[in-house]
Design brief:
heterodimer; A: mainly alpha; MetI-like fold; 2 domains; B: mainly alpha; 13 helices; 75% helix
Amino acid sequence: MDRYKLKNRIVNAAGRRADKAVRKFRRRNRGLGQVLGQVLRCLLLGAAGLLFAAPVFLLVSGSLMSRWELGEYLGALESGEGFIRWAWFPMYPTFSHYARLLFETPQFFTVFWNSMKIAVCSVGGQLLLAVPAAWAFAVYRFPMRKLLFTLYVVLMLLPFQVTMLSSYLVLNDLKLVNTHWAVILPAACSTYPVFLIYRSFSGIPGALLDAARIDGAGEWRIFRKIGLPLASNGILSAVVLGFLEYWSLIEQPLAFLKDQPLWPLSLYLPEISLGQAGYSFAASVITLIPPAFVFFIGQDYLEKGIAASGLKE
Amino acid sequence: MRHKRAGSEVYAGKWAWLGFLAPSLLGVLIFVCLPFLDVVRRSFTTAVTGRWTGLSNYKSVFENEAFRLAVWNTFRFTAVCLPLLVGLGLLAAVQLSRLRNNQRFKTLFLFPMAVPAAAIVLVWKMVFSSGGFLNLLLGRLGLLADGAQPDYMASGAAFWVLVFSYVWKNLGYTVVLWLAGLSSVPDSILEAARVDGASRWKCFWRITLPNLKGSLYTITVLSFLNSFKVFREAYLVAGSYPDKSMYLLQHLFNNWFVNLDLDKMAAAAVCVGMVLFGAILILQGLWDRED
């Protein structure tokens, strides 16, 4: 190690130590006002956060209440007189709604698997198409690259309603309307994951790739052995965001799926009437489980993905 | 010989991009670009016979009462929601960034993203119908006029319900974007200002905010695009024909699609597409100027 580097290192370390000391000093000598501010901030944020989480609590507690209890609490919604009531915990918790849903309603399984199929196939298809495309944009310089990338960004930003008719026309020609492919194929061609994954690929230094080329690695091998492992964060972000999006898809199945047996959960749930509230609560909770699972496992990736979509090119 | 191999590799590398890009590009062309050209063509013809009619589809779209209402509502929704969401997001993000351990709060704010619209519809009904939690709360606080129990979904207030549900769903997303922006504001400048005796408020106003300008553009666009997805909640709670105050462009497109008014739809899709395209290009221009 040359002298200059060594000197730099020592100075940096000293600086860091000084920073730490300053922070410690500040923490110890915080005024009463600051502490109060901190507490107040926590309380306010906590209250807002609880408001955000309250709907989930309502769903879970409702799904455990007996039919009679729910009837009593929710009666006001149907009659329009008096007010709704609620209990923090059910009087007599019961799993009967879940049992009915899982053991006596084969329809629910069909719908659940429809949703699973649409979400998993869409995200899988997206990866197959988007990861190589993102690699192409990030690593190679080719004619019309800038133009094509702008096209991808524009397509990413267009809402479904604008492209609905065009998708319908082509799906109709391909005789795919009223099959799951009508939802999956256009979703797989979405350009949003290309944009997300592009970010993590473009962080790879070109010198590394050139070194691999000089050592005789082919382009495909470089993509597989260097690109994929280094961009795994970005790819996982795209998976998490994609799953959350395609699990609660409404517009596309509404437009392209006519037969009820093909419907995903997101269209089936609202069909349940308020008279079967317990059933509806339980179905909502089950609908919530897969995305909640993905959310808690992948929250880090989710945050990174969102933050990455905010950075400009 | 070695030389030759290297040459052929460079050649392979020259075309490798096409191999990587082709599948995605093909999909995009087949499912979006080419059919959109067809839509543009259709917007100038009649739906059934395909006869050339010039601009008459566009004329009938602009004279359409429902289209005007939908455009106005969509515009109003955007004009109310965007500043509200972006502002609240910044407020929450600044507060969060001052906490040392904010992971839990971030989780709470982000979680609504994972809640499917379909699962939340029941809750919105429980909160906003005439016997719901909101009226209960207002009644307890004595803010409710005697005997009056408005049903928020069936009146002009439906619009505000939609605004609320949009903010509920998207605040976490915005907060994370703002936090990313805040963390990119160089600490050294803030530190220097503080040493020079600038107050906290002044630091925020004069240093942090100007540095967040780039983030503001992106956050606005992403929030705008997410605002189109509010149709999910609107449709699930109120169906195809909701209260007039929340009849959005998305409802209109959906209804035209159901009624097979394909010529009008084509013309409207071209119009909306052009407006959005223009907005995106302007934004890109702003980005480029920032650099």
